[in-house]
Specification:
By secondary structure, the chain is an alpha+beta fold. The protein is built from 13 helices and five strands. A five-stranded antiparallel sheet has the order 4-3-2-1-5. The protein is globular.
Length: 328
């Protein structure tokens, strides 16, 4: 599918001829996220091969914002639960999920369409000069080499230069990219700034949070509540940490939870009660996988109340993401 005409869930939902949307819409939205990642990957991996990089990126960024707004629960599920092979297109998925969080932040902060779009495009391109290296590191179990460490330290400026070469001249976009590893306490890089662009500050927090949810060969993904606790403990949450936590909720879609019944479940979607999400039960009380997942509500009282986030991922990958989402 050409980058200039991405799959549009929004237009697909509103056919002029009145054709009803297909069944299992959350499953279709999952496939739309997968399709978007497939389109973003070649553009981000080889940006100089695009005849018009900005022209190709703009509609994909707009599609990302539209998908996020259509169903934030599926968007969050795609990041938190992960794909069946999370190391495939690792760098593109990470950029996409960071941009998705930026879209959520933009909505929460009432940035407006223009500023939100700018933040999303900056997040998508923040690592443009080291995309291949990120894919390598996702599979690497040995420590960083000196050469890899130097490339990482240099990538904000290298990416800024690359974007300029590609025709990007928006100062806020370029500043957000070059400063997205800076921190207000001056401990960031590459310049140790203490005054950081607002978009860069937001991208930094979204980047760190998304990275902690992404597994690598050297470590598994962290449960969302643990990832949130770590970025606050490490003081990498910045001004936007609380915003992201409020957006994702107590039990984000895609996260694995323990129920009072002894069963385990994957969160499907949030409800008005932050402590009582809709879930798909995936194991019985003896931790044995069910033949098929069972949709269930939860409540503050009763056997299906949520005790908390699961301490490990046992049972999380028993069923394909689309099998779970079909229960929505």
């Amino acid at each position: 599918m050409p980058a200039s005409s991405p799959f549009s869930l929004v237009s697909w939902l509103h056919h002029a001829d009145g054709t009803p949307p297909p069944a299992n819409l959350p499953v279709q939205q999952w496939h739309a996220w997968e399709a978007l990642c497939a389109q973003l990957t070649p553009l981000l991996m080889a940006p100089r091969q695009a005849s018009d990089f900005a022209g190709a990126l703009h509609p994909l960024a707009a599609e990302l914002v539209a998908l996020t707004r259509e169903d934030p629960d599926v968007a969050i599920f795609h990041m938190v639960h992960g794909s069946e092979d999370p190391l495939v297109r690792y760098s593109a998925r990470h950029a996409m999920h960071t941009a998705m969080l930026m879209a959520l932040v933009g909505r929460r902060k009432d940035w407006g369409d223009g500023r939100t779009a700018l933040g999303v495009k900056a997040a998508l391109t923040m690592n443009l000069s080291i995309m291949a290296l990120q894919d390598t590191l996702a599979r690497q179990v040995t420590p960083l080499t000196p050469e890899q460490r130097a490339e990482i330290q240099a990538h904000p400026e290298a990416t800024r230069r690359m974007l300029i070469e590609l025709g990007i001249d928006e100062p806020d976009w370029l500043d957000a990219v070059v400063q997205h590893h800076e921190q207000p306490d001056g401990r960031g890089y590459p310049h140790g700034l203490v005054k950081v662009h607002t978009l860069a500050d937001a991208i930094h927090t979204c980047d760190v949070f998304s990275a902690k949810l992404s597994p690598r060969a050297s470590r598994g993904r962290l449960p969302a509540p643990q990832a949130a606790a770590e970025i606050f403990r490490q003081r990498s949450a910045g001004y936007f940490g609380a915003t992201i936590i409020r957006e994702l909720g107590l039990y984000p879609p895609g996260s694995l939870v323990d129920l009072a019944s002894g069963e385990r479940a994957v969160v499907l979607c949030r409800t008005a009660d932050a402590g009582a999400p809709q879930v798909a039960v995936v194991t019985d009380a003896l931790a044995c996988p069910l033949p098929m997942p069972l949709r269930s509500g939860t409540a503050r009282q009763g056997p299906h109340r949520v005790l908390g986030a699961a301490a490990d991922r046992a049972g999380a990958d028993t069923f394909a993401p689309t099998t779970l989402l079909a229960l929505r």
